[in-house]
Amino acid sequence: MIADDHAMVREGLRSFLSLSGDLETVGAAADGREAVALTHELRPDIVLMDLLMPVLDGISAIAVIRRELPSVEVVALSGYLEPQLIADALHAGAVGYLLKDTDAEELHRAVRAAAAGQVQLSPAVAARLVRDVHVPTTPPQLTRREEEVLTLLARGRANGQIARELHIAPQTVKTHVSNILQKLNAESRTQAALYAMRVGLVPVHAAAPS
C-alpha cells in the first residue's frame, strides 16, 4: 500500500511497482489518517509511507500501524535526508528509510526485503545515520557467534537466512538477536545494524541486501 499526499507521487510509485511481476499495489492513501484506516481494511504486507502529510503525519501513522497491526511492515519514503526525521521514523517502527529518488530496481528490492523483516536503508541514509551512532567507551562483549549474527543482520539477512548460512536453528538465531539488542541497548534490528556499520563489522554500502 502507498501513502503520499501527492497524487503524482502515488501514481509514480504504483507504476514503478507494476514493473515487477510479484508485487501488487492494493491501495493508496492521501494522508496519515487514511493510511491507518486503509491498512486496517486491506491488511497489506508493506506500507510505503511518506512522512510529511496532512491530517496525521507519516511518523505518527507509522507508530499507530506498528502498534495496532504489528504484522504490517512500514518503509518510510521521503525526499528529506534530515537525521531527526530519519531517527523519528525508525523509532516509530519503520523497517527502512528510502529517499524518493530511489530507482525502480532499488524500490522493488526494498519492498521484498521489508516483507522479510530485513533492514533496508538508502546508502545515503545509512551513511548519515552511522555518523551519529554512539559507540560506548567500553564496547559490549559480544560472543563470536553473536558477532557473526550481527554481521549478517547488518547485511540485510532475515533470521531464516542467517540460520541457513550459519547452519543453526532459526530459534537460536532469534535468541542471539535478542541478546545482541540487549547488549547494545538497541531498540531494533536497524539500530543494531547501524552499530555494526559504525564499528566496521560491515561497510555502509552493505546494509542493503544484494
TrEMBL record:
Residues 1-115 form the Response regulatory domain. The keyword Phosphoprotein applies. The keyword rRNA-binding does not apply. InterPro entries: CheY-like_superfamily (IPR011006), NreC/VraR/RcsB-like_REC (IPR058245), Sig_transdc_resp-reg_C-effctor (IPR016032), Sig_transdc_resp-reg_receiver (IPR001789), Tscrpt_reg_LuxR_C (IPR000792), WalR-like (IPR039420). PROSITE patterns: HTH_LUXR_1, HTH_LUXR_2, RESPONSE_REGULATORY. Pfam families: GerE, Response_reg. The modification 4-aspartylphosphate is found at D50. Keywords: DNA-binding, Phosphoprotein. Residues 135-200 form the HTH luxR-type domain. CDD domains: LuxR_C_like, REC_NarL-like. It comes from the Bacteria. This is Response regulator transcription factor. It comes from Dactylosporangium salmoneum.
